[in-house]
TrEMBL record:
<dbReference type="InterPro" id="IPR015942">
    <property type="entry name" value="Asp/Glu/hydantoin_racemase"/>
</dbReference>
<dbReference type="InterPro" id="IPR053714">
    <property type="entry name" value="Iso_Racemase_Enz_sf"/>
</dbReference>
<dbReference type="Pfam" id="PF01177">
    <property type="entry name" value="Asp_Glu_race"/>
</dbReference>
<dbReference type="InterPro" id="IPR052186">
    <property type="entry name" value="Hydantoin_racemase-like"/>
</dbReference>
<dbReference type="GO" id="GO:0047661">
    <property type="term" value="F:amino-acid racemase activity"/>
</dbReference>
<dbReference type="InterPro" id="IPR001920">
    <property type="entry name" value="Asp/Glu_race"/>
</dbReference>
<dbReference type="GO" id="GO:0036348">
    <property type="term" value="F:hydantoin racemase activity"/>
</dbReference>
<comment type="similarity">
    <text>Belongs to the HyuE racemase family.</text>
</comment>
<protein>
    <recommendedName>
        <fullName>Hydantoin racemase</fullName>
        <ecNumber>5.1.99.5</ecNumber>
    </recommendedName>
</protein>
């Protein structure tokens, strides 16, 4: 089984961090292939960044189809481009937020997603509602710019821990979800410190992807995720004109 991990931002070190987390949990027969978008923002913080990251994400998914992959994971907790990717893919496509909150729902009645900036909190809160977890989950922002997670001297980890502690005390959280792909390497350490399940979206998405492939299941192509209708695309988007299925 081959699972493609696509980082929709252009920061290669974040891709490697996600790939390391994915390989740590992947089954022995699973190959993890990591890809970094070659166009778009260096980090995704809010709707504007997310919108401009989608073309690079779709390009990576499309261009790597010739090598083949059985499922793909979009390594951004905003589930950037997830709907578009599912619409032209014929393999399962997993997002970090959806995978993580579903996993947390197996483990706890109440949980808190701790993310980076307030603008991301609002976006993720909307996703949590969409995924049916609004009554069980709260989303908190720790006031950390995404790229500060790459800098050990930034104080980002202290801010993250402080917000987790508030979640445990004030929200009554029984589990914590790390709301950014850049936090993936901290899950085990934080779980040991706080004694509650700490869910990393990358790891959760990889295991869900393996399960779907093993079950022989993929995204329905009837209705919402039907393949795009062939039509011309113009200008800089001409290369995205639907010319057939991706897989």
């Amino acid at each position: 089984m081959r699972i493609l991990i696509v980082n929709p931002n252009t920061t290669a070190s974040m891709t490697e961090k996600a790939a390391t987390a994915a390989r740590a949990v992947a089954a022995s027969g699973t190959e993890i292939i990591a890809a970094t978008s070659r166009m778009g923002p260096v980090s995704i913080e809010g709707h504007y960044d997310g919108a401009l990251a989608i073309p690079g994400l779709l390009s990576e998914l499309k261009e790597r189809q010739s090598a083949g992959y059985d499922a793909a994971v979009i390594a951004c907790f905003d589930d950037t481009g997830l709907e578009a990717a599912r619409s032209f893919a014929v393999v399962p496509i997993l997002g970090l937020c959806e995978s993580a909150v579903v996993t947390a729902g197996f483990l706890a009645q109440r949980f808190t997603v701790v993310t980076t900036l307030e603008r991301s909190r609002v976006l993720i809160d909307n996703l949590v509602r969409r995924y049916g977890m609004a009554e069980r989950a709260k989303v908190r922002a720790s006031d950390i710019p995404v790229l500060e997670l790459e800098n050990a001297a930034s104080g980002a980890i202290g801010k993250l821990r402080a917000e987790i502690e508030r979640a445990l005390e004030e929200d009554g959280a029984e589990a914590i979800v790390l709301g950014c792909a850049g936090m993936t390497d901290l899950a085990h350490q934080l779980q040991e410190i706080y004694g509650v399940p700490v869910v990393d979206g990358v790891s959760a998405a990889v295991k869900h992807a393996e399960a779907l492939v093993s079950l022989g299941l993929s995204t329905s192509k009837r209705g919402s995720y039907a393949s795009p209708l062939p039509k011309p695309f113009t200008g800089a988007m001409s290369g995205f004109s639907p010319a057939g299925k991706l897989g």
